[in-house]
Amino acid sequence: METIKKYALIGLRLLVAIILIQTLRFKFTAHPDSVYIFTTVGLEPFGRISIGILELIASILILIPRTTWFGAVLTLGIIGGAIMMHLTILGIEVNGDGGTLFLLALITELSAGIVFWNEKDSIPYFNQIAYKVNN
Question: Which residues cross the membrane (predicted)?
Fold first, then answer.
């Protein structure tokens, strides 16, 4: 059972990284859909490029075993913001995509949350603080 869990978590890490990386070409090439999204939320072009860079960093960090937890936290923040933009400004469907971007954001957020939960014990100093609080 432990082997299945190990490979499932590796799969989730890869899924998050792949989703983050595949969206980078839209952000970095100023694809019209990406420009539309970031213009609508008032973050074009600085936000589009900055978030693209942060997503690239998160996708690398989540794949490195020692920094998986930090990549997951960064992903949770970035994608949490994207979900909020969908729920407040953009709407679920953007430019007739049928809600695909929103669904990908939900999948990424859920996957990163599961990865983080399973990596929480590897956060530096977290165990020391938890030990002091409980003793």
Answer: 7-26, 46-64, 71-92, 98-117
Residue 1: the pLDDT is 73
Rounded (5°) CA angle 115-8-62? 35
CA–CA distance from 67 to each of 13, 22, 126 (Å)?
Answer: 12, 21, 14
Longest dimension (CA), the chain: 56
Q: Which tens digit of pLDDT belongs to each residue from 50-76?
A: 999 999 999 999 999 999 999 999 999
pLDDT at 41: 96
Written as one letter, the residue type at 24 is L
Q: Provide the whole-model pTM.
A: 0.89
Q: Closest by alpha carbon to 77, among 66, 85, 89?
A: 85
Strands (E), the chain: none
- Alpha carbon distance, N-terminus to C-terminus of the chain: 32
